[in-house]
Specification:
single chain; alpha/beta; UDP N-Acetylglucosamine Acyltransferase, domain 1; 3 domains; 4 helices
Length: about 350
């Protein structure tokens, strides 16, 4: 990172300086680990006490922050410290020289079409009739199969694998180890033997999607598995064949979605959420970590929970669980009534 002064940072963020405007920083740090020459931020009130101890030279704070005692660091007050930090990080990232050109030892099929200003790293493979848009970055050991189409300014980090016929939109980021278009888990059981069902569809990923490391999205049996615009997927997520994830939904690590399920728009899933097959989740649904969903869910629902018990017991219990609050009140009233009757008997 280049050196920036508090004055330059405040100018970029349209912030207000409290302290030395000429102090310079060249790196970022967490507020509790601040060192001289670094900039940090305070957004969560739980970390306020660190601002009086941090050795960082500049701290981004919200405009309404009022210190209770002296602070060594220079403050830059902005409307939203966390958003301001994101803007700074983006600025620094964009300032890093971008890789370009085609490195030796990479392979691009003669029938493939490549746009302008692309980067293809060593040992990357681009298959027959693949199409790579302008500004794409394909890092070493990435694999782009035959007839794959990739839009503009998309990044495939090292080790990404995109199987034949899949489509990736503009401005997408696929992190190392992501696999797009592997066969779905499709088998028919005949006489106790599993026979593979050919998976003839593909995966379609729309614009502005980010896919985490080692996340897998299976191709459809027929048609497409679809990831809509703006979806953000964490690491180690599994999305099965013929699923659809609605636009701007976000999923934390280790989510698993079974085949042919439809996820609505603007949904948020915590880590290790499991979605059963052929289920529809409405828009703006929030699902807590480790929840298991086995039925359709209405728009706007907030749900959590997945006890691991035998299947028959689970279905019996699931009928009773909604009635537990009423049953508890009835039980409490019965206990009180029994105590009252006991007292009456003892008095006789």
């Amino acid at each position: 990172m280049m050196k920036f002064s508090a004055k330059e940072i405040a100018g970029f963020l349209h912030g207000e300086i409290v302290g030395n405007p000429n102090v310079e920083v060249s790196d970022f740090a967490k507020i509790e680990e601040g060192k001289p020459g670094t900039i940090t931020f305070l957004a969560n009130p739980k970390y306020t006490h660190f601002i009086y101890e941090t050795e960082s030279d500049i701290v981004l704070v919200n405009s309404d922050f009022k210190p209770e005692r002296e602070i060594r660091a220079t403050l830059v007050k902005v409307p939203n410290a966390y958003a301001a930090l994101a803007s700074l990080l983006e600025m620094v990232t964009n300032a890093v020289p971008k890789k370009s050109g085609v490195e030796e030892m990479s392979f691009i099929a003669s029938s493939a079409k490549t746009g302008s200003d692309i980067y293809v790293g060593a040992f990357a493979y681009i298959g027959e009739k693949a199409e790579i848009g302008d500004g794409c970055k394909i890092y070493p050991h990435a694999y782009v199969g035959d007839n794959v189409k990739i839009g503009k300014n998309t990044i495939l980090y090292s080790g990404v694998k995109i199987y034949q016929g899949c489509i990736v939109g503009d401005h997408c980021i696929l992190h190392s180890g992501a696999v797009i278009g592997a066969d779905g888990f499709g088998f028919s059981n005949e006489g106790g033997v599993y026979h593979k069902i050919p998976q003839t569809g593909n995966v379609v990923i729309e614009n502005d999607v980010e896919i985490g490391a080692n996340t897998t999205i299976d191709r459809a049996v027929m048609g497409s598995t679809v990831i809509r615009q703006g979806v953000k997927l964490d690491n180690l997520i599994q999305i099965a064949h013929n699923c659809e994830v609605g636009k701007h939904s976000a999923m934390a690590a280790q989510v698993g979605i079974a085949g042919s399920s439809k996820i609505g728009e603007y949904c948020v899933f915590g880590g290790q959420v499991g979605i059963g097959g052929h289920i529809t989740i409405g828009d703006k649904v929030q699902v807590g970590a480790q929840a298991g969903i086995i039925s359709n869910t209405k728009e706007g629902a907030e749900i959590i929970g997945s006890p691991a018990i035998p299947v028959k017991n689970f279905f019996r219990s699931s009928i009773i669980i909604p009635k537990l609050p009423d049953m508890y009140r009835q039980l409490s009233n019965l206990e009180k009534e029994i105590e009252r009757l006991k007292k009456q008997l003892n008095e006789k």
